[in-house]
Structure formats: structure tokens, C-alpha cells
Amino acid sequence: MSEPCSKRINPKQREFFNERAEIWDSITTHDDEKVSYITSILELKGDEKIMDVGTGTGVMIPYYESKLDSGSITAVDYSENMIEAARRKFPENEHPVTFKVSDIYNLEMKPEFDLIMCYSCFPHFPNQPLAVSHLTEGLKSGGKFVVAHSASRDKINNVHMEAGKIVSNDFLPQMNELTEMMEKAHLDVIFRRDDEEYYIAVGCKH
């Protein structure tokens, strides 16, 4: 991790999300049926330790929580305002969640998580191969790393191109490119879906 932090994050991008945090839930939608489908692919048993990367306002938290008995969620985002919005919705004293404000590249990763999920956030990571290799350091053997979107790659990329200069170049890679990143990070890619409805890749740590 010798690459300077300033080359791995975009302060203007963080500002973009901080400025929109208060209204984010009113300007974005997530199809419940689609998010439920993504959750079903995770095959949660109930005791998993989960990291939700780019948690935003906590879209995935209730879906994880509905499957957990004794597990826990660490919800991470580099936008402090997004984290604050999520914390108001899911207070830590009422839900099995711990919130953390951090750039993913500055997270200290050790093999403790059963699942690391990047839902609707992967395009915003500078140096995506580094993001995959760094995050997967946090997986236990047999743990899963997931990149998921409830829309097609083309639709996601078009949304970002139209959303403003700050995120206009935040693209999802071709599925074969993501697969290569995951395999180089010592993951077995066990599920892929890349069509008009979804973009999903699941890798399992050796």
C-alpha cells in the first residue's frame, strides 16, 4: 500500500455525496424485489460478520438484518454525511451495525469477515484492482466478496455520465475485467450475472 492516499481518493467525489446525503433517499430508488434477489444469492446463514462497503444511507442494512440471528454488520462509507443519515435510520443501539467513516484504502483489513459487499458503489472506486485486492484481505477463508448492482452495466454507466462532471467517469468494468481482478485477488468466481437487469459477481476466497 505504498501508493499515496491522495492518488486513491477524490475529495470532490466525497463532497458530491456529502452534499446530497440529506436528499439521497428521495432521489434514488432501489427495487425491493431486486435487492431481495441479490440478498438471496448471498446465502446468509445468520451468524455472518458482514462488511457493507459504500453503505451510503444504509440501503442494504435491513436486508442483511432480516437474515441475521447472531451476526453483525460493519457499514463503511467515506462520506460522513451519508453515514450520519444511515445512523439516524439504523441506530447502533437498536441494530447489529457499527458505522465507520473511512476511505476503503485506509481501512486496516484482517481476515475476519464472512462477506464483504460492494452494493451500488464499485464504479466510484479509483484503482478498482487495488480496491478488490485490499478489501479481500478482510475475508476469512471461504468468505465471499460481492460486487452487485440492481441494473445493467450500461444503465449504471449512463447514469453516472449524466449525473455531473464529478462522477461522469465512474464506470463499471466489463464483467471479464472484474472477474480477472477477483481471480488475481485469490478469489474463485462462483457466480456472475451481467444482463439487462443486474450486474453481479461473487468471489469466494481460497
UniProtKB/TrEMBL annotation:
<dbReference type="InterPro" id="IPR041698">
    <property type="entry name" value="Methyltransf_25"/>
</dbReference>
<feature type="domain" description="Methyltransferase">
    <location>
        <begin position="50"/>
        <end position="143"/>
    </location>
</feature>
<dbReference type="GO" id="GO:0032259">
    <property type="term" value="P:methylation"/>
</dbReference>
<dbReference type="InterPro" id="IPR029063">
    <property type="entry name" value="SAM-dependent_MTases_sf"/>
</dbReference>
<keyword id="KW-0489">Methyltransferase</keyword>
<keyword id="KW-0808">Transferase</keyword>
<dbReference type="Pfam" id="PF13649">
    <property type="entry name" value="Methyltransf_25"/>
</dbReference>
<dbReference type="GO" id="GO:0008168">
    <property type="term" value="F:methyltransferase activity"/>
</dbReference>
<protein>
    <submittedName>
        <fullName>Methyltransferase</fullName>
    </submittedName>
</protein>
